[in-house]
Amino acid sequence: MRKECKVTKQTTRQVNFDSVSEGSRLSNIRTTFPPFATIVYIMNLTPLISLIMLSMTCERFDCSVKRVQSACVEMLDDPNCQNSTRRLAKNVLRLCGARYRKMRACGLFAVDADLPLRMVELITAYCIVLLQFAF
After folding, report:
1. 55: exposed, middle or buried (C-beta count within 10 Å: 0-12, 13-18, 19+)?
2. Residue 109 needs a FRET pair 20 to 30 A away by CA distance; which of 23, 27, 32, 71 works?
3. CA atoms of 90 and 103, how far apart (whole Å)
4. How many C-alpha atoms does 65 have within 13 Å on its Cβ side?
5. What are the residue boundaries of the structural domains of the chain, listed by start?
6. Pick from 4-18, 31-45, 68-82, 87-101: least confident
7. Where would you find the membrane-spanning parts of this chain (predicted)?
8. Whole-prediction pTM value?
């Protein structure tokens, strides 16, 4: 007692089902939802976009700290600078030298402009290794 049922429905989405009722086994289910697929693709890209934006922001912060340090060095080199300004520049340089490091994620890796590139390199390397094991 084997029944075959074939249903095809085409609207904004296309669904093709070939099912066999015996043993409730489904074979050759192919589902295509063009609007849904674009939403899924966008949702998959969201973490990558967030990572790129975070990396850019941290890199801009690092650049601004370097600019502040170079401005302080210029103030110290200026002979017309007041004593209070020189003291402030020295304190800023001392603080930046002692406490400032690039932003790090859990102390494992620096979050800067190179992070998205390093992530792509890592994913590519792992994909190559997995492909080597597959073949």
Report:
1. buried
2. 71
3. 23
4. 17
5. 4-32, 36-134
6. 4-18
7. 33-56
8. 0.59
* Cβ atoms < 10 Å from Cβ of 111: 19
> What are the pLDDT digits (tens) for 61-99?
889 989 999 999 998 888 888 888 899 999 989 888 877
The answer to whether 110 and 104 are in contact (CB under 8 A) is yes
Of 96, 104, 110, 87, which Cα lies nearest the Cα of 68? 96
Bridge partners, residue 110, by sequence: 104
User: Which residue has tokens 């004593």?
Assistant: 83
